[in-house]
Task: structure prediction
Amino acid sequence: MGMGGAYTALSDDASGVLWNPAGLLDMKYSEISSTYLKGIADTGQGYFNYVAFLEKGKNAIGFSVKTLNSGEYEIRKPDWGDYFSVANAQTEYLYIATYSQMIINYFAVGVNAKLYSSSIAQGLPIWIICGDMGLMYKDTFLGNMIKIGLSIQNIGPEIKYFESGDPMPLKYNFGLSYSLLLNSECFVVSALDINKSIDSNIKVNIGLEGTYLSKYKLRVGYRFRSDTDWLTLGFGYCLDEFLTLDYAYMFNKVEGIGDKHYLTLSVYLIGGLENTTYDNLNLNDCSLSTEELELGVTKLEILRITKNCKIRIYNAKTTELLQEIDENIFGNKGWVIWDGKDNKGEFVPAGSYLLHIFDDKGNKNMKTIKIINNREGVLK
Result:
């Protein structure tokens, strides 16, 4: 929440189950995370998320539990005198099973099946089955990563505590994010979310995250047209390679109501359900999404590369260096995308090209790729 809730086009950690399940394929590792929210008054929320790859970057499954306690209230009766009892005002549980799948290059879909339970005061709990669905598309723009996310949340029947009911709070989300590598040590992500619930007006959230040395993160966000929250701040710290602590603070604009505090602990799992992790790979494990690139129609994904790799692309005949790609631009996810353009932003001619892949330890691998004309005849 440190980015103001602008997360529909990111969702690249285990908490993405709650935002856009299609984004989970961009996680670096399988992951477990737990979040506690100290809300207004006596309200508290807890989240537990687990997401594991079946095949890294291709499909993933997950499970999430969300709890809400709205505090307590006193129960008094005329014949009790000064005595009273205490009961929970409202208690909610949400159980989520999630699945994410890469459909085609750069385009993923995700779905959530949810079981919702809620009880008010001393009444019996109600149980409702509902769901979410999400889409994620990623590409390059001006040499950096851009992502577009869409999600629909809370697809389901009415919520009925008594004879009459209220509609499920159906919500539509559109998100846009852009990642920018400032230098070898600093990485910045900006994000925009536009949300529309059936019972509220359109709301806009923006957020910014800066990462330094892949270890320290600072976040700021702003929520436009929100009735309560407005400014958010946050930070993250990697305690070690597989353990991260995040904190977010959300200011409340309503006088007399406290601000919100979010605390999250994330554990990255070595292996998960997938066969390998990127830290176990070497450059001999890297692969290409295709060996024939049809420019203007498809793009090249260089997969299963180690952290901080650099890719240099040469003309096979002239050995001219045409483009250099830094894996950091794509957020150290173990893959990069080449759109078939040189360092001037122009499509390269049809022919054969060499890809030299280097890691930060001096190791090297080489691949070849063939460029063919696109359908519209842009290349001659």
Summary: Residues 288-369 form a domain with the Immunoglobulin-like fold (CATH 2.60.40). DSSP finds no helices and 26 strands in the chain.
